[in-house]
Write the structure tokens for this entry.
Amino acid sequence: MQSKEHIALQQVLDAPSTKRYRFKAPEGLTEETVRLISESKEEPSWMLELRRKALAEFLRKPMPDWGPSLELLDLERISYFVRPDAKPNAGNWDEVPEDIKRVYDRLGIPRAEQEALAGAGAQFDSDVVYHSLKKKWEDLGVVFLDMDVALKRHEDLVRRHFNRCVPYTDHKFAALHFAVWSGGTFIYVPKGVKVPLPLQAYFRMNTMKMGQFEHTLIVVDEGAQLHYIEGCSAPQYAASSLHAGCVEIFVGKGARVRYSSVENWSRNTFNLNTKRALVKDDGVIEWVGGNLGSGVTMLYPSSILLGDNATSDHTSIAFAARSQNQDVGAKVFMLGKDNAATIRSKSISMEGGITSYRGIVRVGKNAEHASLNVQCDALMMDSRSESNTYPIMDIQNNTATITHEATVGKISDEEIFFLTSRGIPKDQAVQMIVAGFIEPVVKELPLEYAVELNRLIAMEMEGSLG
Amino acid sequence: MRPAVIPQIRTPSLVYGIGVRSPFFALEERLSLPALERLPPRVARLLDRHNLLSGIKLEASVLTAQPYEEKSVEADAAFMLDASLCLTIAKDATVTVTVPRAGKEWDAHSLLLEILPGVKADLVLRDENPGGGTAGLVVKAVVGKGASLTMNDLLITDADTFRRTTIVLAGEDSGVLPNHAFFAYGKAKVDVRSQVVHAGAASASDIRIRGIAAQEAEVITQGDIRIEPAAAGANGYQHEDLIMLGKKSVARPIPNLEIGNHEVRCTHGATVANIDEDTLFFLTSRGIPREKALSVVLASFLSPLLTLFPAAEGEHIRDSIAALIAERGMIGG
């Protein structure tokens, strides 16, 4: 049986705010919808042109014929643009409508912003309703804006990077994203500036049968440093929702970027996200991810190590319970000399859930002395569940050193007996062992998010182990 | 009772769609799928019962393209794979099958095995033309209750070739040990796929692939372990280790797992590296010529698998590799 604390948290996540939009585009995607989005944002003509080309590409490309089934995703029954009844980009939480603010309060966003963040943003459906950066960082030249606002204020900087890391031709849902993107985050950190506190954005998809397509563009200049965190959730509905966001990260020479995310969409959501980083000489990209929610997730953060001595580190946990299919992984492309990468992936499946690790590692012809280690561990809690591992390695330079290992199994009876024989109830013993299993991922998150991630997993497992 | 249908591994599009292409991919596009009815009844039943005709087109076409010889084996035996073979191994035996040299652009044969319950079988696959062109081979085997199959497969080639192996552990307590060793050189394109499907409870497998890609050879190795929901207590292991000797060589290991029962233990691993220069220096600094040192190191790399071959075969492989290195100098970039 779930504890009161977990019931309260679940109610926050699952309950929609009352009908809270001032505009909702008709279901289905047409060029008219794309034009409407662009005109309502007063975008420059090159952006509209890009949207139109992306739409054409989306309509041309077939659905993927691999991975989880997307049969239940009816793209004609999704509304691609929903504007909440709230002032965009409020700089003060008091300016955010009370019922919307209450959602973020219960999720702890305003408190975290005061105590532990350099800045925060909150997106509700297709618009950013709150955005703020502490003055100290603004004075140092750090830019942290809603993507729509950044396009107006820093058009050249945006144009130089937008759609350059992830081309709209990449795959069908990248094309869809670039056709209808709205909201999201733009961050620029100037040369040499190290931001020690994280910047955070939280995405809430409130309206039924909608799609959220936020665009996150991060440019960290030479020698700079940034930690950026994204969280997300949506109420539980019977009809499908779609999330096809995009994250583009440019890591300059000698710069370091950590991107952390805890994705907790509702089970009716299809989460088809694209995340990619381009890393220059001596640059470092770190991906830390928790994938807990959504009915179907296809998510493979990619690192392209362009420069020499560039490094990437992927650490993730995927959790799939009843009616969930978490198809996640990592891609690393090593193109410079002396590139190094690690991938650590953990997954837990229970009650018929399916987890799959899907990864690609490619070492280019000229990528001398690349080194890579991949470790995938999967825990299956029962025989109704499934766990799959599909790694591909394509090594085209013979100076590379590549290792990959994976294990799949259940919690051993000896481990459970060790704890229960000391008076610990069985379900608590299992939770302790699971917490130990995911600890390598959780310890990479800031404390508040580590606690949150542990809480969310415990909530999923509570009451379901007999 | 008819076993559950075993669906194919759900990744062929991924493998072929993201720039990692088998050298035979283009061929597959041209192949049609001959009807199951053309096969001898016993062969058709064996393939159909365990859904062994599914899979990518290349395998299915090879399986149905040639006439089959059906034989029962009750003692050690040797065969030349002129036609395709369907062997029922009814008693403990070592079966040696010689794979002929490739005649046409992509010659291929198929070998079907049924290991009856309780039988311990050893299969040795050897080339008629080691070091040259060898026909491709599709092997499908069904292992009965309490039976075991050890399969030792060796390739030394400078020409394109493939091995596609599917072993179904149909019976409880059945086991298989597929060992694949190869030395690809020149401009060879080698594609080795070894799939084990655990359908029986407490079944066990240990796929070992060790290969060397020298000069401009390109190799793809794919080890697949699939555990069906009914296979409680199964143990599946897999390891792919590749050495890239040539500067222009390419290695593509793809170890896959599909696990449908939680009362199992499954692990896989893959490594890709070059010969450690420190190891070579250790030998050359003691007066051993570099070519000889390289032969010793490569033989050592393959030795965990070579020890599983009959002694004469193991010696033959070591001598063949040493001869190639001596003939072509230091095989490398």
Q: What stands out?
A: Confidence is low (pLDDT under 50) at residues 1-21 of chain B.
